[in-house]
TrEMBL record:
It comes from Onychostoma macrolepis. GO terms for molecular function: fatty acid binding. It comes from the Eukaryota. The keyword Translocase does not apply. CDD domains: FABP1. This is Fatty acid-binding protein, liver. Its main location: cytoplasm. Keywords: Cytoplasm, Lipid-binding, Transport. It is found in: Cytoplasm. The lineage of its organism: Eukaryota, Metazoa, Chordata, Craniata, Vertebrata. Forms a beta-barrel structure that accommodates hydrophobic ligands in its interior.
Length: 128
C-alpha cells in the first residue's frame, strides 16, 4: 500500500500537553490547536517527500528509508535521523520524540508522537 496522497487532519488527542512538553510557546499552541493541517506524501519506492501545511507554516522533509537524513522537527530544529518502514508504518526517533505514522487503511493516516509519558495522536483522512 502506497503512502502517496494528500491527507487532512480530522481529529487529534493530546496536542496542547505535547506541544508544551516540546517547548512550543503558548501563543503558537493556541493558534495551532484548531488548524486542520494538510499532509502531502510523495512516495517513490523507498524515497519519501512529506509536506505538512499548518495554516501559513509549511514543513517539508525528504528522506530515504533506512538512510540518515536531516529532518526538521515541529519546533523548527533540524535533526539527523533514520526513518524505518515496518509494514504500513514509518518510524523515526527525533531527539527524544518517537514518531510512528501508520497507514491504517487506504484512506486513514494515524501519526502518534511520544515524548516520555506525553502522547500526541493525529488522525488524518485522504483527500486525494
Amino acid at each position: 500500500m502506497s503512502f502517496s496522497g494528500k491527507y487532512q487532519l480530522e481529529s487529534q488527542e493530546g496536542f496542547v500537553e505535547f506541544m508544551k512538553g516540546v517547548g512550543l510557546p503558548d501563543d503558537l499552541i493556541e493558534k495551532g490547536k484548531d488548524i486542520k493541517s494538510v499532509s502531502e506524501i510523495e512516495q517513490n519506492g523507498d524515497q519519501f517527500k512529506v509536506t505538512v501545511t499548518t495554516g501559513t507554516k509549511v514543513l517539508t522533509n525528504s528522506f530515504t528509508i533506512g538512510k540518515e537524513a536531516e529532518i526538521e522537527t515541529l519546533t523548527g530544529e533540524k535533526v539527523k535521523a533514520v526513518v524505518n518502514k515496518e509494514g504500513n508504518k514509518l518510524k523515526v526517533v527525533l531527539n527524544k520524540i518517537t514518531s510512528v505514522t501508520e497507514l491504517v487503511d487506504g484512506n486513514t493516516l494515524v501519526n502518534t508522537l511520544t515524548l516520555g509519558s506525553l502522547v500526541y495522536k493525529r488522525i488524518s483522512k485522504r483527500l486525494a
